[in-house]
Specification:
It is a single chain. The chain contains 6 helices and no strands. With 147 residues, the chain is mostly helical. It has one domain. The radius of gyration is 16 Å and the shape is elongated. The two termini are 27 Å apart. Keywords: Signal. This is tRNA methyltransferase.
């Protein structure tokens, strides 16, 4: 499961990519909003597609098909924010090694639960980004969404 966590948390990882140089909080918010909304438009549907795939898994082979969906989405997201297949920190993104992935009914239940939570958080971030005009509004919106 630890190997899959970076894939399942794609929007949060992309959101955490910090721009170079010094910017004030509002500049960073505006830049993040401009970069993140398009990424979230594609990553959330990919997460939902992965969830549907995960719910149908019955083997490691099935699971690897689901991993491929999110890996492709992550690579597209990184390219769209200017990172290619690497993060803005110059390190390759964490990708699970297929031999390290195990499938079990218990793991499936946990992955579905984790991905559902990640989708809800991502949808909250997307909604708050879309309707917030400042970092203070974003903070307030996210606090309300967490309740």
């Amino acid at each position: 499961m630890k190997c899959l966590l970076p894939i399942l948390l794609l929007p949060a990882m992309v959101f955490a990519q910090s721009p170079q140089g010094q910017m004030d909080k509002e500049q960073m918010f505006k830049m993040a909003k401009q970069r993140m909304l398009p990424v979230m438009e594609t990553s959330i549907p990919a997460m939902k597609k992965t969830l549907t795939c995960l719910e149908r898994t019955a083997s490691k082979d099935d699971l690897m098909k689901c991993v491929a969906i999110m890996t492709k989405a992550r690579e597209q997201a990184m390219r769209s924010i200017g990172g290619g297949k690497e993060s803005s920190h110059g390190k390759p993104p964490l990708a699970p090694d297929p031999k390290d992935i195990e499938w079990s009914p218990e793991m499936k239940v946990q992955m579905v639960k984790d991905l559902n939570m990640s989708i809800k958080r991502s949808e909250a971030i997307k909604g708050c980004l879309g309707k917030s005009a400042s970092s203070a509004e974003m903070d307030s919106c996210m606090q309300s969404a967490a309740k």
